[in-house]
Specification:
The chain has helices spanning about 5-15, 20-30, 30-45, 65-75, 85-105, 130-135, 140-145, 150-165, 190-200, 200-240, 255-270, 290-295, 305-315, and strands at about 15-20, 45-50, 55-60, 135-140, 170, 175-180. The protein is built from 13 helices and six strands.
Amino acid sequence: MDDAALLIAELLARRWLPRNHPRVKRALVDAELFASIEQRLAQVGLRFMDSIYADYVSVALLPTAQLSVLGESGLNTNNNIELPRDAQALLVVLWALIILPKRERQTSRTEEADLGQNDMFPGAKPLPVARLVSPLISYKALLEDYGPQLGKKLRLDANLKLLERHGFITRKQDEIGEGPLLDVLLDYDVLAPRILNGALADVLARERSEQEALEAQAARALQNAAASDAPDNAADDAAPAPAPASLPAAAPIPVAQSKSKARAKQVVAAVEPDPEPEPEPEFADEPPAGSYEASVTEPEIATDVEANIESAIDDFELPPRDSDAPPSQPKEH
């Protein structure tokens, strides 16, 4: 058996194969091998089912062979795998919740980790694989949102097991994901317009109107805020500037403090000898501008240090000079 026959036999036995399967990869890149596979499948009334947005491939009946195989009654039914009506409704709901967001992310080249980020050149990225962009549906959220319409918990659990057995979904604990055949056997070009323009048209229109109402409300709130701020700004501009507060008058120096300063000056004059007059320099009294002498300034004594010196001088008493002592009486001989 050649590769074409082996691939067809494996597809009939397994019902689907991943795109990264060695024979599938070769068939997708080898035009001669792919033509041979399609020719042999057509001879038995089958066709090769493939989609660039799906991770699996499968086979299905040709439209010309459906009437002969299924019959008129089977062809007029809504499915040929004996799904009940609530299971069909659940299949359409899951297809809309999983495939529509996945296809939008794939066409925009946006992966799950890149949500919320805009790319300058989205077309330059390769098409992301389905397992990276396919969303997961919570079982609890599905039961809460669609449980009353889909037969409550008992019927929902039975239909989920049925869809999983047919390969439409996968289940892992409380999460429902895309199955191998969900995006292969259900035609997106036929089903998507009926959902978007039919069943979900009212929902999308309602969401769009609510979004527009919220945007208009936010715009009105901004306008009202700007209008309320305008009179306040005008009042602030028209109000006269307050007059500067007058500086407080300098406090009078206490009499005791002035007396202590005078006493300190007298004591210093009495203790220190009169300085000898310095000879006048030959050059000018003031140093030239820019010299080192002109840049040096005498440091100022801090106020608290000066007060401590004055208080120490007040407490210190000098012995009287000889000139200030009373004249001594002559001794009697």
